[in-house]
Amino acid sequence: MSESIYGLKRTHSCGELTVKNENEKVILMGWAQRRRDHGGLIFVDLRDRSGFVQVVFSPEISGAFFQKAESVRSEFVLAVAGTVRIRPEGTINPNMATGEVEVYAHELRILNAAKTPPFYIEDNVDVDETLRLKYRYLDLRRPEMQQALITRHKTTLAVRNYLDQKGFLEIETPMLANSTPEGARDYLVPSRVHPGEFYALPQSPQQFKQILMVSGMEKYFQIVRCFRDEDLRADRQPEFTQLDIEMSFIERDDILGIMEEMVAYIFDCVLGKKITTPFPRISYEDAINQYGSDKPDLRFDIPLVDIGELVKDSGFKVFADVLSSGGQVKGINAPGCGHYSRKELDDLTTYCAIFGAKGLAWIIVSEDGVKSPIAKFFTPEQFNRILDRMHAQPGDLLLFVADQPAVVADSLGHLRQEIAKRENLIDENALNFAWVIDFPLLEYDGEENRWVAMHHMFTSPRDEDLGLLATDPGKVKAKAYDMILNGVEVGGGSIRIHRRDIQEQLFSLVGFSPEEAREKFGFMLEAFEYGAPPHGGIAFGIDRLVMLMTKKDSIRDVIAFPKTQSATDLMIQAPGPVAHKQLRELHIKLDVLSKNK
After folding, report:
1. In the chain, which end has fewer C-beta atoms inside a 10 angstrom radius, N or C?
2. CB distance 78 to 30 below 8 Å
3. Are 271 and 265 in contact (CB under 8 A)?
4. Is 378 in contact with 315 (CB distance < 8 Å)?
């Protein structure tokens, strides 16, 4: 600070004072967290971004300012001049970073008074999120929210430092681009100078970063805002921040190694935690088969177990019919859950129904044998083989779903997670990273009756699968990879297509005519004819990564000004109507009910 405020110039931050500052004259500025009047003394906990310190007002030292301190209330903005003293024996506060010292005030300035806040400015506040978002400027005063944004800052700083050391260039790409098919809906921006035409806000800089590789930049990164008009949930926002990375003359294993090193660097710099590399690698097929998810949580050991071969000849018609129609019968072992009541089992059945399961069979294993409504359909030998396959022990609960493979994977994948949460099987301090690789290049959309790209249309097929593009596209594997942390996808990428003929073949497979491909992506196809290098990259969700680093439940808690699940900003009341004049300038006529009418 270069100038004084009301005759005072700040010398220290509240949270940095220690016994080393004893007898120093200090000037502090911040907010009154709380005020306590003990008759002859007034105590004010003064807060700024660095933390808290206790300020003491006494008639002897503070003089006339003692009476002014009596008017202080929570969230008043104060400037205090005083002397640092060590707290008397027996009054030290071990729960406060500055708990060994206090400041005896000899001067006080009330820089601004404050209304009573609608909620307490403290951590773990029990208040509806809509109120927090409406008064976001108050919510962000809370130490845990400030710490989350500090962690976010340190994370992006570590990213920039690491990538700079590795020779990457930070290059910005346009916010106003063209609308592209596939993926989520675009946010559109009307053009005033081109009536009837629109820009689209980028869902990702995908095309631009590939063009940068064609341009010879070789190593690019960008911490960039992206936009998607999609249904929201805890880990989605209409605008989000992405770490975008692209490299030329690179293969998959090179990218995975560099990214592992970068993540280890980030966690060491920001959290002081050592991450073991290399990360485990799991094929997409194994992830679905073993965990029912392409982003498995590996902090607990509850795999999906296929018992189809053991029950196909049993007398249980439900299992037999599903298997004969190409379905699966799989189960999980919920360790130590044999005590579950019938109501709890019914609740689990209802839970699985959310993901399409038509039922949930169960077996309770005890020292005296087994208890199950399906036991009568199996011989003792068949039951023993099931127990052996499931590694069942007395006290365990075995849960089974019989259905088509997608339903079995989805329902049991979520069920294993639910059981782990209920039984406290998850180590909240663990950091279990993994790579999921060898994704299918395409998946079939039955509603649209066509192939769609599982990642995106610029993902390269494996070299050994190129011949299958024309004959059996469903069997083609992609050079794609996702980084998983504790059951959350934090990053995903691929080696890209860099040849025009292969790119045109993929456009055709997903339903684009040659004319449509040229209209939408002609510039890329043409660029590939001017010596495009082999290249690949990855994108990380900064919001998700910081959410996991700070152990938050929602990315809204690590974004300064987030939207609600209905994509609204409650503080500034966005989105909102605009004036008719603005619409006329943009050549737009509304054909919907509007506040403007």
Report:
1. C
2. yes
3. no
4. yes
Please provide the DSSP assignment of 485-501 as one string. ETTEEEEEEEEBP--HH
Q: What is the 3-state secondary structure (H, E, C) of 317-334?
A: HHHHHHHHCCCEEEEEEE
Three-class SS state of 161 = helix
Taking 80 as the threshold, does the pLDDT of residue 569 lie above it? Answer: yes
Q: Work out the end-to-end distance of the chain between its first and last CA atoms, rounded to an integer number of angstroms.
A: 50
Taking only the tens place, the pLDDT of each residue in 300-351 is 999 999 999 999 888 899 999 999 999 999 999 999 999 999 999 999 999 9
223 exposure class (CB count in 10 Å sphere: 0-12, 13-18, 19+) = middle
How far CA 238 is from CA of 224, 461, 567, in Å, comes to: 14, 30, 7
**Residue range 161-206, pLDDT digits in tens:** 999 999 999 999 999 998 877 667 899 999 999 999 999 999 999 9
The 3-class secondary structure across 190-204, one letter per residue, is ECCCCCCCEEECCCC
CA 298 to chain centroid, in Å, comes to 17
- The one-letter code for the residue type at 255 is I
For residue 570, give the DSSP letter.
Answer: T
Which strand (E) or helix (H) includes residue 311?
A: helix 308-311
Residue 60 tokens, joined: 């002897």
Token pair of 7 as six digits: 């005759």
Tell me the H-state helices in 425-537. 468-471, 500-509, 514-527
What one-character DSSP code corresponds to residue 16?
G
Q: Using omega within 30 degrees of 0 as the cis cutoff, is the peptide bond preceding 303 cis?
A: no
Q: pTM surpassing 0.85?
A: yes
- Confidence band for 81, pLDDT divided at 50, 70 and 90: very high
435: nearest Cα among 288, 281, 256 = 281
Q: Which of 579, 83, 490 is nearest to 260 (CA)?
A: 490
Joined together, the tokens standing for residue 517 give 């491909």
CB atoms within 10 A of CB 524: 19
Beta-carbon count within 10 A of 548 CB: 18
Q: Is the dihedral of CA 532, 538, 541, 546 positive or negative?
A: negative
Identify the sign of the CA torsion 50, 52, 53, 59: positive
Report d(CA 12, CA 28) in Å as an integer: 6
Residue 101 host element (H or E): strand 101-112
Looking at 301-429, which runs of residues are DSSP E strands?
Answer: 305-306, 328-334, 361-366, 369-371, 397-403
Q: Using alpha carbons only, what angle is made at residue 453 by residues 449 and 458, rounded to the nearest 5 degrees?
A: 140
Q: Which helix (H) or strand (E) holds 77?
A: strand 77-86
- The DSSP secondary-structure symbol of 575 reads S
- Please return the burial class of 320, using the count of CB atoms within 10 Å of its CB with bins 0-12, 13-18 and 19+: middle
**3-state helix, strand and coil shares in percent for the chain, rounded to the nearest 5:** 35, 25, 40
Tokens of 95: 């729960």
The CA distances from residue 49 to 105, 206, 473, 532, in Å, are 20, 38, 56, 49
Buried-exposed string 181-211: b where 16+ CB fall within 10 A, e elsewhere: eeeeebbeebeeeeeeeebbbbbbbbbbbbb
Q: What is the C-alpha separation between 440 and 479, in angstroms, rounded?
A: 9
What pLDDT shows up at residue 1?
41
